[in-house]
Amino acid sequence: MDGPRNVKRTFRLRQVNALDSAAKPASTLVGNRPRIRFMLAYSRVIAAVVRVVGASRRHAVAVAALVLLATALAGFHVARRIAIDTDTSNLISPDLPWRRAAAELDRAFPQNIDLLAVVVDGETPDQTEDAASALAAQFAANRALFRDVREPAGSPFFRRNGMLFLSVGEVQTFADSMITAQPMLGALASDPSPRGVFGALGLFSQGVIRGQIAASTLDKPFGAVARAIDAALDGRYAPLSWQALLSDRKPGPREMRRIILARPALNYGDVEPGRRAIEEVHAAARAGGFVPGNGVRVRVTGPVALSDDQLSALSDGAGVAAGLSFGLMVLWLALAMRSVRAVAAILVTLGVGLVACACFAVVVVGPFNPISVAFAPLFIGIAIDFGIQFSVRYAAERHGCDEEAAAAGARGPDNLPEALRRTAAGVGTPLVVAGAATAAGFLSLYPTEYRGVSDLGLIAGAGMLIALVLNLTLLPALLALFRSGGFREAGGFARAAPLDLLLVRRRRWIFAACALLAAASLAALAGLRFDFDPINLENPDSESARTLFDLMRDPDTTPYTLDVLAASAKEASELASRLGRLREVSQVIWLGSFVPSDQQAKLEIIEDARGLLEPAWSSPRAGDPPGAADIVAAAGKCAAEIRKVAAGGDAAATRLAAALERVVSRGPAAVPALEANLSRGAVHRLEDVRLALQAAPVSLETIPPDVRRDWVAADGRYRVEVFPKGDARNHEVLRGFVAAVTREAPGATGMPVQIQESARTVILAVAAITLILLVVLRRPRDIMAVLVPLLLAGLLTLATSVLAGMPLNFANIVTLPLLLGIGVAFDIYFVLRWRSGEAGLLQSPTARGVVFSALTTGTAFGSLMLSKSPGMADMGKLLSLGLFYTLVCTLFFLPAFLGAPPARPEEGSGR
């Protein structure tokens, strides 16, 4: 363990040795020039740090007061200006070509920015359409919360001309079904109530009795009505689907889902700007009865909802996690320092630094993003290391001064100034070098185009410099004011002496073991995978993410599409034709896609059906709406007619007759439920049929503005949307899709391009960071001493992540360069102590400081794992894992790698 030394004498001896070397012959001078430069620079840094720490001690009250006042002002500014941008697309620099293309698309179609997608799913097409129409109308009327609302599938254009998008055969089948159902259509047009339904069923029964209709042709309507009546009598809401009843075609998944697109009025004063609009969506759904119990499910997704849920995930439980993390950190500090006063000094310094770092971020960088918001645990984890290193060394020096005074047999003057001076001399240079190297490592992130990492690098780099300055000014001032003492164990781990000796003597065995671990880790890296999809960073338990994943299963609602802008309709048509022929493309949509084919043949069929069905719409109304007794009487009359059909052995007729007889026995009390299940929405369905029979020729010029605005910009440019073929969540499929489309249309933009280009940007960023760290460290020996343990720790971290099934992603990949910055500090402490000729690294105050720094840093990083945000949690997991391996490699591999230290200069080595 290091004994106390007279630091002034050490300075003089080092300077004299350097000057002696300068006076030696040229051959000796050339050989020792690096050593001379190092010793001169080392002594200058020590002298400067000693002066700064001494001045802070002498003016402790003034330093503490000024810093705390500045902190209060900075905290007030941060509280007023802090903001978080959770849009993952903004994690990449907006100056990249593909980001500029995306911004150009947003300017051309601003109605697609900041959208809420309200997804309405129903058990029948009728329920889905009614719910979507009602909700869209309600949202459009609420201008305070919704700036723009549209339901593309509910446009009058599609209600009128939707049949033209079917094949000729499907149009003919639909027309035949409507003609067959003419008696029911007429009855409903005259009386859209349960009485009208029962009257229509009676007419059909008479047709069977007279032999005009086969009983089997009525099985479908009889069965559907019987099920609706039974559900009503059993107290269940199960409305009759008139669309399914009037058509022989089975409804597809698209008809059971509608999507309302709304631009909410965002309140950026709230933590979740779109929360009020989202709550209004759910409140409106509940008020309208559009709930799963009634066969309708309303969910919300889209950029606004995803952003709000991400913010909610970041904040949910953050207070509890921060409290637990802070409690553990205080425990580690208490064990490390064994002094409440020293712990208080470190925590105050840490708090001041955190506020200063946040203020820098707010003023210089602006809003945080999902990556840069991690600056807080990173700052706490690394900045507290500086405080622990300084304070542990101070405790050791203070104890040494006390022992010297006791040995002299006199109480002597106050030894706090001498202890602080020795601390500054002993740990000042390692702190400065570690702080500068760590800051350089973080700042090397800044030039990258990955803006999330760039912002984090700038904030964390500045934070390291802030922490360094505060730990050399405020911390000494607080230690002086609090009169913190020392203790024997601060000198290091005395029991580690045998391990120190073993690491040096058996270094070859240690090298061999580490080489085997490195080789095994390299082999495991073959299984390392990168999750390039930023959607996987969303909270999977949130409604918005679950709904988005559901939409992604449908190729027609996948978000993995590309958009291209074309200057004219002709260019858009030609581009759509070329892209549609690519084998990686499933379909291409542009404005021309809404001009149906074979219109003439379809319109002739529709016109014939319209002529035959016209009398149905002309049926006179049946007078006043029927009362409950009238409906029950109509049910009894219909039951008698149906029983005649059932007499022939028809099962569907038998079931319907029984259901109608139950209505009669139940009496008027059953009517409200019958109306809900049988006739609600009948008027709307009749209107849909009437509009469908009024279809007209469609051309580019006749497409209405409400459809046109989604595909033609105000400046006349056309949007072409391209859909991928295959599973777009498969990286190879997505890469092939992007490559094929961008060859034909280099300006294509969208989520697939964002994913591919973002991945390339991140990989380049990591490579640039590693290169810059090499430039910063420069000396080959030092580069090897610092980077080899970190390289081994990195390999072990990645190999463990492979074995644990934890892929890299856009969030946790940034931990790799961050771990370089963290590990550099630990290794520099050891390397500089070794350079100064000190043996027994594990027995030094540095080792004690490193161990407890790792514990406190690991606690800060561990708090990230508790986040409900997958990206933040993954970052915490990989940081904690990497920190563990960094500590192990620093304590056990680095001493073996360094070997026996060089002779101390004051021992007369002359080097």
Observed structural traits:
single chain, 911 residues, mainly alpha, elongated, disordered C terminus
Mean residue pLDDT: 81
Radius of gyration: 38 Å
Tally of extended strands? 9
- Overall, the morphology is elongated
* Protein structure class: mainly alpha
What order do the strands of the largest sheet run in, or round the barrel if closed? 2-3-1-4
DSSP helix fraction: 55-70%
Give the end-to-end Cα distance, rounded to a whole number of Å.
Answer: 24 Å
Instruction: Provide a count of the helices.
Output: 34
Low-confidence runs of at least 5 consecutive residues:
1-31, 906-911
Biggest pleated-sheet summary: 4 strands, antiparallel
Strand content: 5-15%
Quick take:
The protein has 911 residues and is mainly alpha-helical.
Describe this structure in words.
The relative contact order is 0.14. The protein has a 4-stranded antiparallel sheet. Residues 1-31 and 906-911 have low confidence and may be disordered. The chain is built from 34 helices and 9 strands. It is mainly α. The protein is elongated, with a radius of gyration of 38 Å. It is 65% helix and 5% strand.
Topology:
Blueprint lengths: L6 H17 L2 H33 L1 H22 L15 H12 L7 E7 L2 H17 L4 E5 L5 H6 L6 H13 L1 H9 L3 H16 L9 H15 L8 H5 L10 E8 L10 H13 L8 E6 L1 H13 L2 H20 L2 H26 L9 H33 L8 H28 L7 H32 L14 H9 L1 H18 L5 E2 L11 H10 L9 E5 L2 H12 L4 E5 L9 H19 L10 H19 L4 H16 L4 H9 L2 H11 L12 H4 L9 E7 L6 H14 L6 H27 L2 H24 L4 E2 L5 H21 L9 H21 L4 H29 L13
Parallel strand pairs: 5-9
Antiparallel strand pairs: 1-3, 1-4, 2-3, 6-8, 7-8
Helix pairs in contact: 1-2, 2-17, 2-18, 3-15, 3-18, 7-23, 8-9, 8-23, 9-24, 10-25, 10-26, 14-15, 14-33, 15-16, 15-18, 16-17, 16-18, 16-33, 17-18, 17-30, 17-32, 19-34, 20-31, 24-25, 31-32, 31-34, 32-34, 33-34
